[in-house]
Design goal:
Largest sheet: 8 strands, antiparallel
Shape: globular
Structural class: alpha+beta
Radius of gyration: 24 Å
Order of helices and strands: HEEEEEHEEHHEEHHEEEEHEEHEEEHEH
Helix content: 25-40%
């Protein structure tokens, strides 16, 4: 069976981390554009000899991107990821029209996004309330009932407290409804509920040299006052390597016996993670403008450098989804008044900026 290797790795007591290292090269030429940061520029270290090509957060975004083609929701998934559960957010305008707003694969905190938590389930209950009921959270009060410094009562708010025993339910609920949140992590800021990222990825370069170039922006039709504006830009050369670390021991800890994730759930989560890595490293991928990279060589080892596989094995995700019994995807509705207010604020801000 194509998924047998996943079970073997999960059951191995000798492998606690799965380390995948991929040497990357530009599709054309030898120059590339690394990640840049405001007031920092390129992130160079080790005396300037090394450089960050892509950050862990950006690598996570790129791994999510290979799951779909265009659009939102389950219909946007590629054939390799077809059937993977997620949460789709829609909004209905007063004239009755309805359109997709976002989904858990698109949101920064994934299933923990406020856009999802504030949306309504089909029965009218907010997703936040449904989620905490499913998990088994306990309502608690946060704040003081006494008066504050100005003599006014301090605000007392309800928060959802997650008892230690309810964590098993948390893992199960998330794996069943948005398994990517198990792979790449999630965070609910208000309740401080989080899932640690199982799959971490970095991309760095060694032996780097900065290449400075220049050009001119031309306003040929003279529609602005900019005229002929010279500009400069920088790129890099150097040896690039992407590193992916899958925390198998943490994944195993998410289920014990009948609590938390089942063995089928764990295989599904690992399968999604490896499928993401394979999708990102099996051919060319454009990380940004002037950073179109393709794989040159790959090694897969444990944390001690012992070889595990030659290549990422073939993975049948639909079969893993079936064995885990997940799906279908959830659809929730974001409140129109709240969405309309946000749109108005954005327009007002843009208008002030243009003044």
């Amino acid at each position: 069976m194509t998924n047998k290797k996943l079970t073997e790795v999960l059951n191995s007591k000798k492998i606690n981390r799965l380390i995948i290292e991929v040497v990357m090269k530009p599709v054309t030429g030898d120059k590339w554009q690394p990640a840049g940061f405001a007031e920092l520029g390129f992130a160079r270290y080790d005396g300037g000899k090394k450089c960050v090509v892509d950050t862990p957060a950006s690598m996570a975004n790129n791994m999510e991107a290979v799951c779909r083609s265009r659009g939102l929701g389950p219909d946007s998934l590629t054939d390799d990821f077809r059937g993977m559960p997620m949460v789709l957010v829609k909004v209905k305008v007063p004239d009755g029209a309805e359109f997709s707003l976002t989904d858990s694969l698109n949101e920064g905190h994934r299933i923990g996004s406020e856009a999802i938590l504030d949306s309504a389930m089909p029965d009218g209950k907010t997703f936040r309330d449904w989620f905490h009921e499913e998990v088994g959270s306990i309502k608690a009060k946060k704040g003081k009932k006494g008066k504050g410094k100005k003599g006014e009562p301090e605000e007392v708010v309800d928060v959802d407290f997650l008892p230690p025993d309810a964590e098993w339910n948390l893992f199960k609920v998330i794996a069943r409804n948005d398994p990517v949140s198990m792979v790449l992590g999630m965070f609910i800021a208000k309740d401080q509920t989080r899932i640690t990222r199982l799959l971490e990825a970095t991309m760095d370069a060694t032996g780097v040299e900065e290449v400075h170039e220049g050009g001119v922006h031309k306003d040929m039709l003279k529609l602005t006052n900019s005229g002929m504006v010279p500009f400069s830009k920088s790129e890099m050369t150097g040896a690039i390597k992407a590193t992916f670390k899958m925390n198998l021991s943490l994944l195993r800890s998410y289920g014990q016996g009948t609590k938390g994730l089942s063995e089928a759930d764990k295989s599904m989560v690992l399968g999604i993670a490896l499928k993401m890595v394979k999708g990102l490293t099996s051919g060319p991928h454009q990380y940004r403008t002037r950073c179109d990279l393709q794989p040159f060589s790959m090694s897969i080892t444990d944390e001690n450098g012992n070889k595990v596989w030659d290549n990422i094995p073939e993975i049948d995700l639909p079969e893993l989804f079936k064995e885990a019994g997940v799906g279908p995807s959830l659809t929730v509705e974001y409140p129109y008044p709240k969405w309309a207010k946000a749109q108005k604020q954005t327009k007002d801000t843009d208008a002030k900026t243009d003044e």
